[in-house]
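Lecture notes, unit on protein representations.

Consider one protein chain, 129 amino acids long.
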Amino acid sequence: MAIERIGGVKTGTGGQALPFCQATRAGGFVFVSGQVAMDAQGEIIDGGIVPQTHQTMRNVIAILDKAGCTLADVVKANVWLDDARDFQAFNRVYASYFPDGPPARSCVQSPLMVDAKVEIDVTAYREPA
């Protein structure tokens, strides 16, 4: 089975090169690295859990697109919340991205890097062409 790296080294806060690829394809599976609410300049956006969840999901969607996948191909999501009190607001935003039913998901509370309120990684599956 061939392994393909998707998206090169990402630039993070302060222009720092991050030591991971955006996603890896292995057979029909695409493993998207953990995404936070980082904008195009590598900075975490302001505004709390709601705008950060939207930005994080936009980042996940963009990487899935590079891999030829969509949110409909996601079979598992892992979520880390910086503050458990954000769980309800996070869920409302997250659910809006999966109107036909969400994938399997784990969600835990954990301190996060660089002032992020949420981090999400996903695993997608699409039959190889």
